[in-house]
């Protein structure tokens, strides 16, 4: 819980100056860098809280940021970059020297269907973005888009809700099943390198998120019948409910 008295605006504004009135009361997500600085993304901006001295600062389009309406943020400890995705698919990267680099490529790209960025995963200096059409890979050091994976049937668009990596496989949780590819496959950009999980009770279901813990994949599946999500774990070459007994893996 954050108490934000420091976010009150200064009422003294000079003639010809602008005063910022950005609402920060609707939090979207939180991420912490490796220096004890916590970033809280709100609907129309970001504020930071220093765990070291309690200082609070704001970031907005009037100053550092390139856009409005933040969708999600995530920090990469390896490169020291805070990646910000906006609802219109615009992207900002805040580096450790506070330099902000804008990547508008996805926002400006002409794509049939949605372009929303659903999730962010960092691996070995690269940022993997799960989007409504597939996976976008960002080379952080080069500050550019490296590749785009269209992993749907015959290379079509597919809504990637979550991405996970277990050290061997890259897994994509989508709105119509789970897909996997060997991370080191030189042709991973090609849809033929991706296989759809068939050894699962509902191979065509909507899977909304994914993660890997201690080398094991976990996914969340929606259940339109009873409105309860199910958590599944990949263990011993099979997908089984993470929760057992009466819970049956649902919550």
List the helices and strands and how they pair.
Elements: E1 27-32, E2 37-42, E3 46-50, E4 56-59, E5 70-76, E6 81-86, E7 91-94, E8 100-103, H1 105-108, E9 117-123, E10 126-131, E11 135-139, E12 144-149, E13 160-165, E14 169-174, E15 177-182, E16 195-196, E17 207-213, E18 216-221, E19 230-235, E20 238-241
Antiparallel strand pairs: 1-2, 2-3, 3-4, 5-6, 6-7, 7-8, 9-10, 10-11, 11-12, 13-14, 14-15, 15-16, 17-18, 18-19, 19-20
Tally the helices. Answer: 1
Please summarize the sheet with the most strands.
4 strands, antiparallel
The strand line-up of the biggest sheet is 1-2-3-4
**What share of the residues does DSSP label as strand, in percent?**
35-45%
Query: Based on helices, strands and strand pairing, what is the structural class?
Result: mainly beta
> SSE order in H/E notation?
EEEEEEEEHEEEEEEEEEEEE
Number of beta strands: 20
Short description:
By secondary structure, the protein is mainly beta. The protein has 1 helix and 20 strands.
